Amino acid sequence: MRISLEGQVALVTGASSGLGYACAEALAAAGAAVTINYHSHREPAESLAEKIRAHGGQAIAVAGDVSVEADVDKLIAAAVSTFGRLDILVANSGLQKDASFGDMTLADWNSVISVNLTGQLLCARAALRQFRQQQFKPELSRAAGKIVHMSSVHQVIPWAGHVNYSASKGGVDLLMRSIAQEIGEERIRVNAVAPGAIKTAINADSIKGGAEEKLLELVPYGRIGVPEDVANAVVWLASDLSDYVHGATLFIDGGMSLYPGFRNNG
Ligand code: BGC
């Protein structure tokens, strides 16, 4: 079954690389007009927008820091002034600043929390405000708006050496579910995806060389994921095929969250 998001408008944050890039590309392939947000890497975001346009789609690239309220407002405004409305938000921007706990600085903590958690709050709130003020178009979608948060398996799996990151993703879980509980009756759907080990720049080091084999011990399904694995799920969550899915987190992790250490009887 081919999913069509024709006529809908999406904003993907942190889309100049990795999962955000793949999500923007997949949403455009499904027919959505896409606003590609980037923080510091303008070139890949612009060339993705060009690539989408060359394939007959609609896309723009817009700079902005999701942890800055005024930037988030500008992002939504850019999507709306260019494409007329907003139907889908993929709150994807995220980063890691790894350090052992004893060495973790307040700056390491603050930068991760402000992008991974506060950034998702600001983007979801701005999208909600836009959904509320525009006309509901049931011919486009059964929902009045869709928000997909980018979480991680580390919303449930504790992660030594990354307490800022796992705390931010644990926060995303309750942020997403609390928002979903609060605004569901407005027919705005709010969900999350929780990727495991996916080949992107964020985990290039843990996948390099022999490290891949070690990582695979944590993946019952036996392969490292690719960004498209996540993007496909995001397109589905943004579409009416998932119209009764609300407040859910879809783990896209080849089983990483199944406590694989217990495979051989613990
Ligand atoms: C992290 C990756 C990591 C994966 C599995 C993701 O959320 O960003 O660096 O490889 O979780 O541990």
From TrEMBL:
PROSITE patterns: ADH_SHORT, PROKAR_LIPOPROTEIN. GO terms for molecular function: glucose 1-dehydrogenase [NAD(P)+] activity. InterPro entries: KR_dom, NAD(P)-bd_dom_sf, Sc_DH/Rdtase_CS, SDR, SDR_fam. The keyword Oxidoreductase applies. Residues 8-210 form the Ketoreductase domain. The keyword Manganese does not apply. One of its GO terms (biological process) is monocarboxylic acid metabolic process. It comes from the Bacteria. Keywords: Oxidoreductase. Coiled coil: none annotated. It is an enzyme of class 1 (oxidoreductase). Its EC number is 1.1.1.47. Belongs to the short-chain dehydrogenases/reductases (SDR) family. NCBIfam families: PRK07231.1. This is Glucose 1-dehydrogenase.
